[in-house]
Each structure stands twice: as C-alpha cells, then as structure tokens.
C-alpha cells in the first residue's frame, strides 16, 4: 500500500474506527488517539505483513487491543482510586473516633496528679500534712492550726512552701492551663 492508498484508506475508515473505539472507551479524545496510534502501527509494520492481509481488519484489531489496554488501565486507576478512597475514609473515621474519645482532662489529670503526688512525697511531713488538709480535705486554715497546734501564720507558711514547689514542678503545664483555660 502506497501513501495515496493509505490516505484513501485512512479517510474512509477513520471515523468508523473512532466510533467503534468510542463505544468502548467513552472518551472522544482517547478514541481518536487509539485510532491514530492504530493507523500509525499499521503504517510502521505494513512491510512485514503478508500481501493478502485484510488491512481494515488488521487496523480494527489494533484498535480493539488498544481499547482493551485503555480500559484495563482505567480499571486499574479506578481500583486504585477506590482503595485510596477507602483508606482515606478509614483514616478519617479513625481520626474522628479518636478525637471523639479524647479527653484532655484525663491526660492532664493523671500526669499532673502523678507529679503532685511525687512533689508531696518530697515535702517535709508537716508541710505535706498541712497541704493535704487544706487542699484535699478542704479544711480552713484556723482548723488546721488548731488540729496541728500551730498558728494560722504557720499554716500559711507551709501552704506557701508547698505551692511554690508545685509551681516549679508543674511549670511545663501552666502554659497549657492558661492556653486551654484550665485555670
């Protein structure tokens, strides 16, 4: 087949082959590309084909195989997209569930309580006892003073000593308390 014959063949079958490809790939640009590639494939390989080759059937077969390749590629893309969507959906659901179950107070309470307990253990016995009576038992200063046989000023001194130590130990948590209005 010479160039003139090929040009006539191309003009006669191009639109038919494009419609055929479009029926399967449902994308006009892709159908045109598939048909153009198939014609080019025939032209590049025409010298290797037997003389009695049915050229329209040969090119249509090339179109068919390129359509199959295109559709398989689309299927892989769609499957990958579905898997990514499912993964994203799972990740999003996990984030939502985790955030819904997250209670900042629980984290801060347990960590802070541990630090407070350790700090109180390091205090002298009387200072610890005064602090516990004041903060945990909610006893007023004059009652603590009467129970321990010390002055109200002595109670204030022990409370001040304990709170200074706690401020130092909890210094890393104070910005969080201020930022998140935990104060």
From TrEMBL:
Domain of life, source organism: Bacteria
Residue ranges constituting the RNA polymerase sigma-70 region domain according to the UniProt record: 10-75
A GO molecular-function descriptor: sigma factor activity
Domain annotation RNA polymerase sigma factor 70 region 4 type: ranges: 115-164
Gene Ontology biological process terms, A to Z: DNA-templated transcription initiation
Coiled-coil regions, chain positions: none
Keywords: Sigma factor, Transcription, Transcription regulation
Pfam families noted in UniProt: Sigma70_r2 (PF04542), Sigma70_r4_2 (PF08281)
Similarity annotation: Belongs to the sigma-70 factor family. ECF subfamily.
Protein name per Swiss-Prot or TrEMBL: RNA polymerase sigma-70 factor
Protein's organism: Bacteroides fluxus YIT 12057
